[in-house]
Structure formats: structure tokens, C-alpha cells
């Protein structure tokens, strides 16, 4: 007699994420600032600190003066290419102070450590890429030249220690430094309205909220502020299936996701007005990484770290946001087995630990519960599922348009800031979701149009047919555009 098969189920969401429904104001600073709640979504549970503890005054002093244009409108150290010497002259090694950042009960204060990480990562990028900024300013047609290939001990060691504690790579990242932990509110009582958002750190002119640099970053924050409903909707889908609840509740979860994505994409569309395409390449110099970049052919040595072996890290990228990966996992979107998809997987490490853990949980649950197969067994759920896929498509399509208009048309540099190929990487993921939509429509909804007694009625047809027509049209346009740009660039 063969032994009975044992089915092992992953923990429920509440078991895995005990703070998911907590009031963010009650969370202790010993928790990672990106602990996810249904109130804050993928934003940190508290607005980031703007001032570090007094012991880090030498770091703050440099950051008060380093931007190309300071807050008072006067040129800073980067304007005259004097940041490098100032760092070497003024900044002591404060690594030992990082572990002294503790809460009242003696736990490490991850909230403050994240702010220290943010500030060191800004200084590190500015230091390493300052020569590239000088090259670009003096002769942009010759490209970026070479960056510095040694990060001094006074920056490298404390940055590395913060990263160890937070379990993220020791380099500037989208959530932990450049965008989501880099904003404050002009007037706290007004909340997260776009006009009330301000940057804490910036490279060029971003401390002026009207600048394109500020607009580029703040638009991302404006989008992510709409993620609480996205998280809640995903939880409703998962928890209902875990508990054997009714299909109507699953459908309501999808409707929450759809409403959230409408708001997110409305904010996303504001990028065109908030950040001028012609001005993007200027501040973009400072958000490149080390991996797959011509500026760092031999990597970067972090002095005093990992036996001074050259290190490689991917740069800041909006692709590190968690909005679309959440839907990729929930909807079980299959990605092609290509080197481009491998880059997509590498980006996961650059998200905060709570984001990585939550996304991995959603991926596991979606597979375990068979969310895709469940959704396609009912016409109403199938259409909601397809409409959710359509938001992934439209989000990625808009991201492609940004890449095309802000970057591809304006520079021959072959890689994005994160180190992915600028022409082919986004189409890799965009094509995957388009293919999935067409496959579902052709195999599930299409045949119902002619089936007697089908519940795919005229109202459904009017909703779905125009959407699928757009998908097929964009699929054709995308293929032609990618082929054109690849031919022009010899890719």
C-alpha cells in the first residue's frame, strides 16, 4: 500500500504578513519601512525622515551642497565638478554608527537606517558618476566617458552595512532611495496630493518641485499612493479562494484591482506634463548602475568591502516598482525563457525585503490556488481577468512610449539605467501579456460568440471586442517599431 500523498500548503496571507491590516501609525520603527499594509500599499508605512541623527552631520553637510542646483538656487558641488575632492576631504567613516541606530527597546531602527541608506546611496551615485556628468555637460555627443571605479571607504562601508541590515544591494534603488523613500510633504495636513509632494534628495534641480527631475520622481510616488486598493483587491481574490468563498467575492476583488489601476494609470499619464522628455537625459546621468554599463567596464571597488573585489550592481529603474509584478504573479502571466526575462528576475533583488516577500507569496498562492484556471471557467470572471490583463498591457505600453520618447529617440546609449537593453527589454514583457490576452480570447471567449445559450452577450461583446482590436493593433505596431529601432542601432 503506497503512502498517502501529503499536500503542503503555504501560510495564509495573515499568517505570513501579520501587520497587513494594521494601522501604519502603530508600527514600530524596528520594522522595515516597506512593511506592506492595506492602508499604505507599496509606499513606506511612514513618510521618510528628512534629517539624519546628529552623528551623520558630515554626510548631511555634503548632501546639502552637492546638487547641481541647491535648494537656495545657488550652484552646488556637482555644478563645478568638485564633489569628489570634497567627499575625500570631509567625510569620515561612520560605519560603526550604523549599528548604534536602535529603538527604545534596543532593536535596530530600520526606519532610520533606511534613511541613512538613502543618503549614502545618493552620495555614492553622485561620486561615481560625477566624471560622466562632466563629460556629458561638456560634450554630450561623445557620451558619458568613464565613471570612478573606486568608492571611498567613507561611503562604501556604511552604505554596505546599511544594505546588509536591510537585505538589499548596496546601491541606489527605486524604492529604498531614489523614489519611494525620498519624499516628504510640504504640509502634512494636506496628505498625498501631488502638489503637496516634495523631494528630500535630488541630483540636478529636483528640489524645485516644478523641475522635470522632481516631476519624474514625484509622478512615481503619485502612482504608488493608489496601491492600497490594488493590494486589498489581490488579497480578496486570494483569501476568497483560500476559504472557498463565492465567485462573486472573487469578482469584487478583481473590480477593486481594476479601479485601482484606473487611478494608477491616470497618474502615470501625468508624467508627460510633470517631466519634460527633452530634459530627462540630463538628470538621468546620475541613476545609471554599474552592471552592463560602458561607464564601468571593470566594475567598482568598494574600498574596505568584500576584499576590494570589483562589484557590479544594476541601476535605479522604475521596473523595480511592485505594481505590475504583483499582477504578473496574481494573473500567472508566463514570460518567455529569454535572457531579457532573466534581467526581469534579477530586478527582484532590488526591491525592499517586504515587497519581495509579498510578491513571492502572491506568486506561490496564485499557482497553488490556480487563479488563472479558476478565472477562465466563468464568463464574467474571464472578462474581469482579461480586463485586468489589459491594464498590465496598457501600463507596459505607456512605459514603452516613455522609453521611446524620453530615451530612444534622444540618445544612442544602448542600455537603460538598470542595465537592460533599451530597445528590446520592455517589448519582451509587453509581448508576453499581449500573447496571453489573445490566447485567452481565442480559446475561451471567441467560441462563445456563436454558441447557442452562451452568456457572452452583446454587452460583453461591446466591452471585449474593441479591447482585443487594440491589442492586436498594438502588437503589430510594437513589432514594427522594435524592428525599426533594432535595424537603426544594429541590434
CATH architecture: Up-down Bundle
**Taking strands numbered 1, 2, ... along the chain, how are they ordered across the largest sheet?**
1-4-5
CATH topology: the name is Methane Monooxygenase Hydroxylase, Chain G, domain 1
β-strand percent reads under 5%
Structural class: mainly alpha
The CATH top-level class label: Mainly Alpha
Compute the number of strand runs.
Answer: 5
Mean pLDDT: 94
Order of SSEs: HHHHHEHHEEHHHHHEEHHHHHHH
Report the biggest beta sheet as strand number plus sense, adding barrel if it closes: 3 strands, mixed
Distance between the termini: 60 Å
**Gyration radius, in Å:** 24 Å
Family: Belongs to the indoleamine 2,3-dioxygenase family.
Keywords: Dioxygenase, Heme, Iron, Metal-binding, Oxidoreductase
Binding site for heme b: 399
Protein name: Indoleamine 2,3-dioxygenase
